[in-house]
Amino acid sequence: MSRHQENIALAQSVYDCGFASDWAKLETLLCDDFEIVEPAGLSFGGAYRGKDALERVFGSVLGALQPRDVQLKSMTANESQVVSLLDLVFDSDDGDFIMPVAELFEIEGGKIKRMLPYFYDTAVLDRFLRDRAKD
């Protein structure tokens, strides 16, 4: 298996463990000084640090977002990074509301060092979440 394939498998394992709530296994995939930085413009924005950061993020981010589905579209990698493209799918009065997201995984020593999620349009997502909260 090439380094690129190993890195994609590592990033996929992060998703698999997170969605299965297997926090103990997930922590083995992360560097001791792991960091995930959510966009500052969203209610859950900011930097989360430490091996338990993803558990805290899953609780706050998915708790705030409550997507109906997370659809992984693709992953690509180089020697030290993986980029995944995914769609967050929400129910709305007008049908599905879809927010495209790109997540950058930075890898060091065979573990995830940092994750940086990029939401296609944080203003539109924030407005959708506020409007949904009014209902």
From TrEMBL:
Q: Where is the SnoaL-like domain?
A: 20-115
Q: Which SUPFAM superfamilies match?
A: NTF2-like
Cross-referenced InterPro entries, in alphabetical order?
NTF2-like_dom_sf, SnoaL-like
Q: Which domain of life is it from?
A: Bacteria
Q: What is this protein called?
A: Nuclear transport factor 2 family protein
The organism named in the record is Altererythrobacter arenosus
